[in-house]
Structure formats: structure tokens, C-alpha cells
Amino acid sequence: MAVPLNAAKTQSRKLQAKRSSVSLKRMMSNRYLYLMLLPTVLYFLIFEYKPMYGAIIAFKDFNPFSGVAGSPWVGFKNFEKFFESYYFFRLLKNTFLMSFYSLLFIFPASLAFALLLNELRLKKLKSFLQTVSYLPHFISLIVICGMIIDFTKPGGIINSLLLGIGIISEPIQFLILPEWFRTIYVGSGMWQSLGWNSIIYLAALSGINPSLYEAAVVDGAGRWKQLTHITLPGILPTVLILLILNVGTLLNVGWDKIILLYNPGTYVTADVISTFVYRRGVMEADYSFSAAVGLFNSVINFTLLVLANRISRKTTENSLW
Amino acid sequence: MVIKRSIPEMIFDSCNVLFLIFCSFLFLYPMWYVLVSSFSDVHAIAAGEVSFWPKGFNADAYKLVFEDQRIWTAYGNTFIYVIAGTFINLVLTTLGAYPLSRKNLEGRSLIMAFIVFTMFFSGGLIPAYLNVRELGLYDTRWALLLPGAVSAFNLIVMRTFFQSIPDSLIESAKIDGAHDFRILLRIVLPLSMPVLAVMTLFYAVGHWNSWFPAMIYLQDRNLFPLQLILREILIQSSAQNMLAGVTQDEVFRISESIKFATIIIATVPILLIYPFLQKYFVKGVMIGALKE
């Protein structure tokens, strides 16, 4: 009995060897493809993965002269310092609120805008509207912030308008008052990205089979019924994927606009994790501490993304991976 | 198929049209206001009299901006960053996307995972910043060209496009004795013009508008891109530097119209080409959407 078993083993070993030599052969025949890949893989190693390794300075007392490897370990000291600091809850709250409000207002608005555009029967007007709505997406952030600063100042058009229709009796210094910061942030974000975000929904909408609508009309469905029974179910997968992505970046609020618009007077509501990391790390060279804060942010984001993805896959069978 | 519309439907349709026209006004007006103000009399702007048409035509602000050496140097730098940066982006993205689109490449899903992971997790700003310093790129043009040289998302878009090219085409070229570089250059790329156009546009607009890396990595003012100079003028209000020998009150007023003029100068190039390129951009987003 032992003999055939052994024979089977050697055979399978032979097979395995053959298979691996086949794959080796295939790899050799594709050697130019690997050569092609090399620069791109090197890019990811040097500019994406090396900083990931470098992030361990969050657990060290980093000294630029000793480098990442040579600096002494301090365990979770930097994290503890952050969690215990007066800034922790303020930063967490601001970061979360700023992106939560963006999600709450911009996400449904983009969908609604796409749906309204889709209902538009005038083709010329539709394409004009699309062109116009994408435009703000291409204007640089610096210019947008310059415009925000100019429009919201006491003599700017927003104050003039509000004074003109009598909503306020004296000009508001929007950018100096902390209570206005989130409104400005989300409002300008809406203006910038509404049209651009709607592209993906319009693409999904155009992918719905027109015969479904014809059948619905024959069955006597009105526009509202068509919307709830055909259009919305048709774009649901797209909506969910975008929602997962958005939830996954809930603690990744766009710091660039904040850096351009905030000032020490509005830190109370405007300072977020990433702007704090920028100030403490780049400007004050407090490397280990701000790397710890940044790592905390990355880990939370990644966890949120994985969770959102899992929940979506379980409940709706839509997922990123 | 002609369908008779009911009265409520007609009401909805007309409200929809009116609402969307109002939306397009909201999208356009801020830019129109900037354009109009840049040509208006400085006193009229300060008094808040400008709303829809220029008041008292005046192009002095443009003259002052064009006489400013900072703007010209920065314009030149931005062109360097856009051209060199986009070239590096395209080469690296293509070289990554093509091999990964070949189904017979051993280990491609592993390499793909290695790339995709970077879309969801990163070391953070500080390690990236220290990395650039360690590599000796700090305060050189390379600091704006190399970090971010490949976008994982764009690579996926491009790979998806390459996968749609029939295998038989590539196989037959192989049988004819062409090696992989030749196949990429002679067969795959000529068939990929639409996606190449889209990538060029995305990357180029990204470089044109980029400022944060320049802010943290550059010290030498001679290397500054346009956006960084714009930041000084628009955000930090240093337009006053352009004016010498004018009274304080006048300085304040003219600096306002200088802001508007610089906005126009920095934005017009993008907005001018934009209508011609729009369809490519939209196509790019859609190719990206298909992947998901």
C-alpha cells in the first residue's frame, strides 16, 4: 500500500515542480513587462511605502540626526500626550463635523442635481447646465479662497446683498467669527463640487435600460413612480459605493481650504486634525507628536472604510472589494 | 414615442427649468463678478457699486500685474511643472498600467493590491515630508514633480482601458516578433488616445492648480509656481508690494482690483481651453466609474 502512495506523492511533487517551472518560464517570457513595471513599483515603494515605514516615528522620539531607525522608542507616549491634550476633543469634533456636514449636504444635493438634470427635456439647456456646473471644479483652490475672502468681507457682495434685502442690519465679519466657518466651508464646497459629483450619477442614469421606462409608461406609471421604481433602484449601487468611499474618508477633511481660510480666531471651529498636524509638524518641527496625530487619523479612516464596506456588503451586496 | 404630458408634469417641468437656470446663475455669477470688477474703476469697487456691469472702464490693474516680475517668473515655473510633471505622470502611469493589464502576468493581482492599498492608507503628512527632506529633494523642483508622480486611481482607470484592447491583437504582434515595449508603443498606445487625453488633462490641471507641496517644500522664491504667488496676493493681501509711491488709501483701493486682475490672469488659461476639453473630462470620470 505504501508504494503507490509514495508514487502518488512523487508524482504530485513532479507536477508541482513542473507547474512552478511553467510559471517561471512564463515569468521569463514576460521579463520586459516586469522591467516596465519596475519604475512604477519603485515609485510606490519610495514615495508611498517608505513614509508608511517612517510613520513609526510616532512611537519614537524622533531626532533627524539619528534617523528613523536610530531614534529611541517611547511606546505610546506621543499618542497619550495627544489624547490627554486640550486639543483632542476639539480637533476630533471639528474634523468629524466638517466632513459630516459636507456629506450630509453635498452628497444628496449632487444626487438631486443629477436627477433634476436627468428630468430636463431640453437637450441644449441640459448640456449648457452641465458645462456651467463643472466649471468651479477647475478653478484653483487659491482663487476660490481669494473669492470667498473677498465676497464675505464687510463691503463684499454677500454682505451687500444681505443688507440690501434687510436680513441683517450691519455687515457680518464672516471669516472672523468662528460660528460661520463651517457654513462657509460646506457652502463653498457645494459650489465647487456639486456639478462634478453629479457626473457619476448621470453616467449611472444613462446606463438604465430605456425600455424599462417605456414599459412603466404603458403600465400607467407617472414621473414620480418611474423615479421611485426605476431610476432610484437603477443607480442605487453607484450611490452606495460613493457613500462607502465618503464614510471611509470621514476623518479626512480637506485641510487645504481650511489652511487658506482659517486664522487663530476661528481655530475653535476650524482647526481639524490635518491642519493641526501641519502646524505642529511642518511649521513647529514637532515631528514625532504630529506623526502620531496623523497616524491616528489614518488608522481611524482605514477602519471606518473597512467597516462601511463590510456593512454594505452584508446588507446590500455592494462593496468596494 | 410621443407622450402627452399631464398638467402636474408640465408644472414640474417648468419649475425644474426655472430652478436649474437659477442654479446656473449661481455657478456663473461669482466668476462674472470677478471679471467685471477687474475692469472697473477702483473707486466704484470700493463703494460697492459694481454688481453686474463694469463701472467706469479701467485696465490699470492688468498693467500693474503684467509689470510685476514675480508673476512672470511664477508663470514660467508653473509651465515647467505642468509640462515636466505631466510627462512624468503619464510615463509612470502607463508603464504601471500596461503590464498589469496583461492577464498572463504572474503575480499581477498581488502587485495590484500593493498599489490599491495606498489609496486607502498612507503614512501621513509628516513622514512624507521627512521623506522628501531625506531624499534631498527639499527646495528643488523635483519636490513638486516626484511625490505624487503616479495616482493609483488613474492607473486603475488606464489599466481598465488597456484590458479592453483585444488580446489577439497583442498576441499576433508577439508572434510577429515584436517585444513588449514595441507592442506598447506601436499598438497599445495609438489605440489608447482617448484615455491618454483624459489622463493628460487630469494631471495637467492638477499641476496647474497645485500649491500645497510648493508651500511646504520650497523656500527659493525663484522656484515658486503661480498659485503660491497668488496666495500671497489673494490670501495674505500683499498686493501692496506692487505699488510704490501711492498714498495709503489709494494703495488699498488699487490692491482690490489687482486681486481681481490676478484671479483672471491665473484662471483664464484653464477656462479658455475647458469647453473644448470638457467631454474628455467627463469621459475620464465615466471610465473611472465603470471600474467600480
From TrEMBL, chain B:
* Lineage start: Bacteria, Bacillati, Bacillota, Bacilli, Bacillales
Keyword field contains Cell division: no
> Which InterPro entries does the UniProt record give?
MetI-like, MetI-like_sf
Record organism: Paenibacillus sonchi
Q: Does the keyword Kinase apply?
A: no
Protein family membership: Belongs to the binding-protein-dependent transport system permease family.
Recorded protein name is Carbohydrate ABC transporter permease
How does this protein lie in the membrane? Multi-pass membrane protein
- Domain ABC transmembrane type-1: residue ranges: 75-273
Q: Which GO terms describe its biological process?
A: transmembrane transport
Where is it found, in Gene Ontology cellular component terms?
plasma membrane
This protein's UniProt keywords: Cell membrane, Membrane, Transmembrane, Transmembrane helix, Transport
- Compartment list: Cell membrane
Main location per UniProt? membrane
Where are its TM segments located?
A: 12-32, 79-98, 110-130, 142-162, 183-205, 258-277
